[in-house]
Protein 1
Amino acid sequence: MGGLADAEIVGDEIKIEFASVLGDVGDMNGDGYGDLMVSAPDADHDAGTAWLFSGAVLAEGGAIGLDEAMAVVTGEEEGMGLGTSLTSAGDLNMDGELDLLIGAAWTRLDRCDDVGSVTLWYGPISGNLLSDAADALILGDSAQEGQFGYAAAVTADGTVAIGAPMMEFGDDEAVVIEGVFGGSFEIGSAGGFSWYGEDTWGDGAVYVLHAGY
């Protein structure tokens, strides 16, 4: 991304860990520049906020304010920690646009803290958005404080891996989500999931999504 080293994104003068997570999310607006997402999971009483910046703006260099973000996503509930992970999801719905995954590892569910969640956004996105406007919500296991969504990454073949470092598994330790999906569902539920074999990464805490089905 040309000129990125000469640009500085300036956070508000408030007590948050601004830009504690960075995500190279690809060219989400189709202008030929790779875009950048930054987050502060502890913003707004730990609701969390993520800002998406145009690579073209970053390439111009200089100081860039938060009001110059193409999109701002804010957690709808205090304590959920939106922005613990940020990653491109590739083109999951095969519409020619890049999609986005945002983790919120401290999400509370059924009186259990730190269950965690991941929101899926079919690109492009713009404007000010609350996390409940996402195209899909994937929730961690409500019986565990697993911090689902604490980390996310994309492999070379376009597979998205989502980490839940505090989750304990049984014999089946990974899950595959095949095809286009939406709505809200919890991992381990019948809809949308098929269990397989052993934990590929050896840490017992990875879920995988495959695009292109």
Protein 2
Amino acid sequence: MSCKPSASTTKKVFGQAETVGGVVCIGSCGLDILVGQKQMAPQLSTRFERISLDQQAPIARITLHNPPLNVIDIPMMEELSSAIAEADASPEIWTIVLRGAGKCFSAGVDVAAHAPETVTEMLNKFHAFIRALLASSKITVAVVHGQCLGGGAELAMVCDIVITAESAEWAFPGIGLGCFPLHRIVRSHGTEARG
């Protein structure tokens, strides 16, 4: 089965096709059903400080914009929660696509947020937007290129579909600090939602 996208379809679905290095699978990978042959609706854009939300039915694109490495800090976590809620509330949106601007998806959660005085707030806000993504009625897709580390990798992995460039670098450097991936929250959410 071939996964060769057409440039026009890729741009309709993902915006900047060059961001994902030509590994986006449209047609034969099933994402073409999200575009169809219909004229796409007008685009609505919301620019936050660290992310952007672009909605053009049936797709909402959330792009991480926190250069140079799209580090997920507490303000970005709050913005992600708001953007996910906004996209999820729209009946015209079928799919939420998450991607990183620039040279990578995300280098993970801000190390400074792990300090004793902020770690509880950070974990609560991180878990809040992850739970919102897991509870979303939309199909969630992460498009990964460059570094995808720690909390960034967790964000990508909770999506329904992950499309990753062959050159993407996945890692969990926080394990050396005693921070482990979210398998427990995902498992408990899955049990509640499906079992």
Protein 3
Amino acid sequence: MRLNETKRKQRTSQEEVLAELFAEAELQGSVRKKKNWDAWMEQEEAQQIEKEMQVYLEEYSDPTLYLTPKEVKAWNRMSKSKQKRLLEKENGHLVTGFIGTPYFCHALSQNGCLKEAYDLLLKEDYPSWLYQVKMGATTIWEHWDGIKPDGTMWSPGMNSFNHYAYGAIGEWMYRVMAGIDTDEAEEGAGFRHLVIWPRMGGGLSYTDAVHETVYGPVRVRWEAEGSRISLLAEIPANTSASIRLDRAVRVEEADGLEFRAMEGFMEANTGSGMYRIVFKQQMTD
């Protein structure tokens, strides 16, 4: 009787030890799995960041910083061709994520594809900005199809309708469509020296935009009647500006400014004030 009891106690003790060993082994296995998972995730994130940086460098980096003028022209031709092929492949739609989206229209308009940039802006079917607007959006969604055409949601659990705006087009509309920009040189940054250079297109008849700066509001309004463009520019006090007339072939009303021909535009430098300029623009296809 005593012998059986002793064996039973030994067996119980062994089972407890084995249970502890199994528990420790399972814990160590979980730790190893977690470490492997973390390492894998870190590698995946690094690869994704590298891909996104490569896209940024290919589509948006400024080649004039490290290429000769001849090489810049070749790079622009290559970049323009690549961007057009990407749009054609996707039937003129965006397939970029939050990181690449805000730069795509800039990359197009900077490389002679202003029409394609406007076409992209004015798309109304999915995926596009105006698809969201037509579905009732007043802010940028997390997903291009946060609300589907049939009214169902992309996902009720993860579906922000007021998301952070890396996917927005607003910057391009202010800087290119309205033409309100700043000279990024040290003495002109922060809208101390403005660059007013609206690029007309998209079949729009007018654009009217105001941007509040530390010096006061900057306003640009342009109206198009065929090739005749009327431009109103309001420059705040204590600032200066370079006013550029995109694809201008003749200035009809200069409002006292002296415009000189540049490559692709005419330009005049001025101080603060309100200016109304009328010019004829070279028409494009």
